[in-house]
């Protein structure tokens, strides 16, 4: 199973800044292996979803052009301390990861 997704959510007034760091190698399929010259197979996050207290907040389809260990930051209105932010993704190999953190 991939490493845990790091989630930081800090509420300030009516706005909450959410920072997400996903551990994933994110191979584009364009690079060649230096030892044998063969193309390295594509391996990337395909679908990403973020929830607030179990309700959908953000949904995205991703592709091979994202950087290794993708970082995402966004602001949410109305979230308060103690609310739960959930992050789930699935990659093109079928691997999945789901993590959750409380808003601080």
Q: Your description of this structure?
A:
This is Thiosulfate oxidation carrier complex protein SoxZ. InterPro entries: Ig-like_fold, Ig_E-set, SoxZ, SoxZ_dom. Residues 8-101 form the Sulphur oxidation protein SoxZ domain. Pfam families: SoxZ. The chain has no helices and seven strands. With 104 residues, the protein is mostly beta strands. The chain has one domain (6-102): Sandwich (Immunoglobulin-like). The strands form two sheets. The protein has a four-stranded antiparallel beta sheet, with no helix packed on it. A three-stranded antiparallel beta sheet has the order 1-2-5, with no helix packed on it. The radius of gyration is 16 Å and the shape is elongated. It starts with 5 loop residues before the first strand and ends with a strand. The model has no long low-confidence stretch (mean pLDDT 96).
Mean pLDDT: 96
Contiguous runs where pLDDT drops below 50 for at least 5 residues: none
Quote the beta fraction. over 45%
The run of helices and strands is EEEEEEE
Radius of gyration, CA atoms, in whole angstroms = 16 Å
What kind of sheet is the major sheet? 4 strands, antiparallel
N/C terminus separation? 27 Å
Gross morphology is elongated
Structural class: mainly beta
CATH fold title: Immunoglobulin-like
Count of discrete alpha- or pi-helical segments spanning 4 or more residues: 0
CATH superfamily: Immunoglobulins
> How many beta-strand elements?
7
Question: How many domains?
Answer: 1
The CATH class designation is: Mainly Beta
Biggest sheet strand order reads: 4-3-6-7
At CATH's second level, what is the architecture? Sandwich
- Percent of residues in helices comes to under 10%
InterPro entries: Ig-like_fold, Ig_E-set, SoxZ, SoxZ_dom
Domain Sulphur oxidation protein SoxZ: 8-101
Pfam families: SoxZ
Protein name: Thiosulfate oxidation carrier complex protein SoxZ
């Amino acid at each position: 199973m991939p490493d845990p997704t790091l989630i930081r959510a800090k509420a300030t007034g009516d706005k909450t800044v959410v920072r997400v760091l996903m551990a994933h190698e994110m191979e584009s399929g364009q690079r060649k292996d230096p030892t044998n010259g063969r193309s390295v197979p594509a391996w990337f996050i395909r679908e990403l979803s973020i929830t607030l207290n179990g309700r959908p907040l953000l949904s995205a389809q991703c592709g091979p052009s994202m950087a290794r260990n993708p970082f995402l930051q966004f602001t949410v209105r109305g979230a308060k301390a103690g609310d739960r932010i959930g992050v789930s993704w699935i990659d093109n190999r079928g691997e999945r990861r789901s993590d959750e953190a409380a808003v601080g």
